[in-house]
Write a structure and sequence with these properties.
Elements lengths: L1 H17 L3 E3 L10 E3 L7 H8 L4 E7 L6 H9 L2 E4 L7 H12 L2 E5 L13 H9 L3 E7 L4 H4 L6 E4 L13 H22 L18
Parallel strand pairs: 1-7, 2-5, 2-6, 3-4, 3-5
Antiparallel strand pairs: 6-7
Helix pairs in contact: 4-5
């Protein structure tokens, strides 16, 4: 109930400050739950991705620090967020989304690189897809990457790619994780070209970029 309400609120705010967003490739979305994955370019992307996937509802990962504030924690929990320790992720980082994908009507929004300042793909997306049986659906965001840009009504465009299914028999290791990372990056590049081949993402905070292993 709260999730549906807050999504309507967010949709109204987005329309007021930035106008209508554009979606490409909606016909590629599969039936049933899926894992929406994209390169992490802004902190507000999860909001836009949740709007793009309507009417399907989503859960998403949020760093544990955000749950320290009781008011914000209440909002996050009721918006289907779950806490993840980025420095020391425990089993729940995999078990919780897998359970949601298999036993509820919640799909998942996640960013395989984990950080807005890292381009390295992690194995979490591969493991969750394997255990849940849900496909990975690539998505890219093209639009303002600075919050002030949203108010200039530089409209946002998002594009969905073809679902990527992970065989449950695949072994999770450096090779398969790297292969998935290459496949996802290829999909992201293709979607970016479809929207605007001249668009280039520039990290607004390049000094924060770190290598995450």
């Amino acid at each position: 109930m709260f999730y549906s309400f807050i999504r309507y609120v967010v949709a109204g705010i987005v329309w007021l400050i930035n106008g209508r967003y554009k979606l490409l490739g909606t016909d590629k979305l599969p039936e049933g739950n899926y894992i929406l994955v994209g390169p992490h370019r802004t902190w507000w992307e999860p909001l836009f991705f949740a709007l793009a996937g309507r009417p399907r509802k989503f859960s998403f990962m949020a760093k544990k620090e955000l749950f320290k504030n009781p008011i914000l924690r209440w909002i996050l929990v009721h918006a289907n967020a779950f806490s993840v320790d980025r420095d020391h992720p425990g089993p729940s980082a995999i078990k919780t989304p897998v359970k949601n994908l298999k036993k509820t009507e919640l799909s998942l929004i996640m960013f395989p690189s984990g950080s807005r300042h890292s381009e390295e793909m992690k194995g979490g997306a591969l493991m969750i897809a394997k255990l849940s049986g849900a496909p990975l659906v690539p998505i890219v965001y093209q639009g303002p990457v600075k919050f002030s840009g949203l108010f200039k009504r530089k409209n946002v465009t998002m594009a969905f790619g073809d679902p990527i299914y992970v065989d449950k028999r695949v072994k999770i290791n450096e090779e398969t994780t790297a292969e998935l990372g290459d496949n996802l990056q290829t999909a992201f590049d293709k979607l970016d070209d479809e929207i605007d081949p001249d668009w280039v993402y520039v990290d607004p905070n390049p000094k924060k970029k770190t290598e995450i292993k």
